[in-house]
Amino acid sequence: MYSVIQIYNILQDVWEEALDYVKALEMRSRIRGVSLYMQTFEFLFGTILRETLLRNCDNLSKALQKERLSASEGNNLSSLTVRTLKKIRSEVQFEKVENKRQDLNVNEPKLPRKRILPKRLDDGAETYQPSSVKELYRKNYFEALDLLVNCIKDRMDQPGYQLYVNLENVLLKAVSGQCYENELNFVCNFYQSDINKRNP
């Protein structure tokens, strides 16, 4: 997706040139369809958003799969990714997509036509209708980032994982001679009478 964004204009030229060489009607129709779709703001917006989200998630995923990574380091990497995603959840970052559209000569965004719910699904409540194109895409942009942040937090904030982090830190800090009282208290509170705590 990063490559597609980087050579967006070149790809548009390639589709035009391909029509001079391709004779099969079905393939010509596909080329025209792809070319027209790439001229829409919806496609550009979706591609940039997906690339941003997947780049951050893929980096985190690769890091978490390293053999020698401790649970505590994994927790820190997850927190760092969440902070990064929260930082790009801003008007400034959203505006960059609009600027990219102008650089690539992509069509201006349009509001989708108003949809009427079928009577069997209509509960009488008013359906959401954005007042402007910017509001629609801004909502989608922020929702996607919020969903990703919440998924990472849900995965890393599980009680079992936090217990694992604290158990690991008790061992690592004890071996290196550091204070591990907070971590030990967390573990003892979890296991209660199963662990006979002694002063660290």
Descriptive terms for the model:
200 residues, mainly alpha, 2 domains, 9 helices
SSE layout:
Elements: H1 2-6, H2 8-21, H3 25-38, H4 41-64, H5 71-87, H6 91-103, H7 133-156, H8 159-176, H9 181-191
Fraction of residues in helix: over 70%
SS elements, strand count:
0
Rg from Cα: 25 Å
Major β-sheet profile: none
The helix-strand sequence is: HHHHHHHHH
Instruction: Figure out the total of helices.
Output: 9
Kindly estimate the percentage of residues that lie in beta strands according to DSSP.
under 5%
Structural class: mainly alpha
Number of domains: 2
Gross geometry = elongated
End-to-end Cα distance: 52 Å
Low-confidence stretches: none
Mean pLDDT: 82
Structural notes for this entry:
This protein is an all-alpha fold and 200 residues long. The protein folds into two domains: 40-110 and 130-157, no CATH class; 158-200, no CATH class. Helix content is 70%, strand content 0%. The protein contains nine helices and no strands. Helix 4 packs antiparallel against helix 5, helix 5 (71-87) packs antiparallel against helix 7 and helix 8 (159-176) packs across helix 9. The radius of gyration is 25 Å and the shape is elongated. The mean pLDDT is 82.
